[in-house]
Amino acid sequence: MTGSASGIGAATVMALAAAGYHTVGLDLNADGAQRVAMQAELEHPGTRHDAVLCDVADEAQVVAAFRKAHAFLGSLDALVTSAGVVDTTPFMDISVEQFRRIHDVNVVGTWLCMREAARVMKPGATICAVASIAGLRGGGLSGTAAYASSKGGVIALAKNAARVLAAQGIRVNTVSPGATDTPMIAQPLSNPAHRQRIENLAAQQRIGRAEEIASGIVYLLSAQASFTHGANLVIDGGIVMP
Ligand SMILES: NC(=O)c1ccc[n+]([C@@H]2O[C@H](COP(=O)([O-])OP(=O)(O)OC[C@H]3O[C@@H](n4cnc5c(N)ncnc54)[C@H](O)[C@@H]3O)[C@@H](O)[C@H]2O)c1
Question: Hey, where are the domains in the chain?
Fold first, then answer.
């Protein structure tokens, strides 16, 4: 599990623990990830959880973190990639360095984690990447060019992984959340006019909760989704309706 310290990742650790999974969270925020791991153990006795400091954009750190995770878990049945960064810089103003960093974390980081997971996964294992409806709509909520293009990249990357890793018996899917109440978009949503505009885009006229994304992720990982492969589950209260 990447990005487990906060938001959708933290909610997913709790939902996975409730479903009986043991987890290891990889995050730049090691203290936050450790707190979530401890909370999962407290609330779901009998399940084991750990956290590892890792920048998912750094190959050596990802390789080392997956070794630790595999040693802790004994086997790797599932991977969720939720680590991600948003950018709200206008199209004409973003620097090349900023643009590259967003793609490094969101796209290269997701691929590195899929690759390291696939090295040790056995047939029946499954992967769920967290993309975004920004990748389908070209942004238009809070994220701008770098974010939208990176999330489009995550959707295509996961489809390619679904094609390639099927031969190993690994299922791969994505979820594409709409606006979800997490620290990631707290700053843009603190502007009441922006918040109202985002809420009005959704048929349900509201912003989602992290738990509502986590439940979709747990479903895609489960045996109930055994024939769901290369799919992109949009969870957005009715914005895109693809
Ligand atoms: N919140 C939304 O509205 C929304 C909508 C669509 C998609 N998403 C996606 O959902 C995922 C989770 O976002 P969230 O809303 O929970 O945000 P969040 O900021 O609450 O959580 C993101 C987590 O990723 C971690 N992280 C960031 N860069 C990292 C790196 N380089 N290496 C390791 N960890 C790193 C952060 O420390 C944090 O714990 C992201 O991929 C995001 O793009 C969020």
Answer: 7-232
